[in-house]
């Protein structure tokens, strides 16, 4: 399983660009990838996105940084070395679609990863239901309120540090996947945090 997190200049993969990618191989969590890039020429920039990921416009347009195409080439090479290549993460369709769009822009004709993904939101929702816990609801929109911080907290881990970093995000996703699927801690970064349902 390839756990991945993308930071971008906005939320539309056709109009916005990747600015960084973090990933790890769940089978071998010591194998990690972190890459930053400049946005593609003409990509739009949303101020709200920069507030989330902490980059400045100058940083994501720096001509000395590698291109989005370079980053997606590196991600594909990293992913193809994994035994199990299913993409996983929180709202991972966002990451998959950005990476696939970047691959198309880079001239790839064969995006090698499947459409099916593993979403930590779904894993956590199911885990809660099976334990008789009602998943939190957004009272305004009447939908699940299980964002990444809520999933982390449920798994005994503090909120993700801000601003968001793609590698930190991927590490958080991987740790909660391990806890939710296998009842096991995974990464040394989270070793000090106990699994709540082990003590309940």
List unreliable stretches of 5+ residues: none
What portion of residues is helical? Answer: 25-40%
Strand order within the widest beta sheet: 3-2-1-4-5
Computed Rg = 17 Å
**CATH homologous superfamily heading:** Ribonuclease H-like superfamily/Ribonuclease H
Count the domains: 1
Total count of strands:
7
Strand content: 15-25%
Can you tell me the CATH class? Alpha Beta
Element-by-element helix/strand order: EEEHHHEHEHEEHH
Summary of the model, kept short:
This protein has 200 residues and is an alpha/beta fold. It is built from seven helices and seven strands, in the order βββαααβαβαββαα.
Topology:
Layout: E1 2-8, E2 18-25, E3 28-36, H1 47-53, H2 57-60, H3 68-80, E4 87-89, H4 92-105, E5 117-119, H5 120-130, E6 137-138, E7 143-144, H6 148-154, H7 166-182
Parallel strand pairs: 1-4, 4-5
Antiparallel strand pairs: 1-2, 2-3, 6-7
Helix pairs in contact: 3-4, 5-7
Polypeptide structure, described:
This protein has 200 residues and is α/β, with parallel strands linked by helices. The protein has one domain: Nucleotidyltransferase, domain 5 (2-Layer Sandwich). It contains seven helices and seven strands; from the N terminus they run βββαααβαβαββαα. The protein has helices at 47-53, 57-60, 68-80, 92-105, 120-130, 148-154, 166-182; strands spanning 2-8, 18-25, 28-36, 87-89, 117-119, 137-138, 143-144. The strands form two sheets. It has a five-stranded mixed β-sheet with strand order 3-2-1-4-5, with helices on both faces. It has a two-stranded antiparallel ribbon with strand order 6-7. α3 crosses α4 and α5 (120-130) packs parallel to α7 (166-182).
């Amino acid at each position: 399983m390839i756990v991945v997190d993308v930071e971008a200049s906005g939320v539309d993969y056709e109009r916005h660009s990747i600015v960084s990618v973090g990933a790890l191989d769940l089978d071998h969590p010591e194998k990690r990838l972190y890459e930053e890039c400049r946005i593609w020429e003409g990509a739009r920039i949303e101020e709200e996105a920069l507030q989330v990921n902490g980059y400045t416009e100058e940083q994501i347009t720096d001509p000395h940084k590698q291109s989005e195409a370079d980053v997606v080439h590196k991600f594909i090479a990293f992913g193809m070395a994994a035994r199990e290549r299913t993409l996983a993460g929180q709202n991972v369709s966002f990451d998959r679609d950005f990476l696939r769009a970047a691959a198309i822009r880079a001239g790839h004709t064969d995006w090698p990863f499947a459409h099916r993904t593993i979403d930590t939101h779904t894993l956590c929702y199911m885990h809660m239901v099976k334990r008789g816990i009602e998943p939190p609801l957004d009272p305004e929109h009447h939908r699940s309120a299980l964002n990444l911080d809520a999933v982390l907290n449920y798994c005994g881990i503090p909120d993700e540090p801000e601003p968001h970093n793609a590698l930190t995000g991927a590490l958080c996703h991987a740790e909660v996947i391990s806890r939710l699927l296998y009842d096991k801690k995974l990464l040394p970064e989270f070793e000090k945090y106990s699994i709540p349902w082990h003590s309940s």
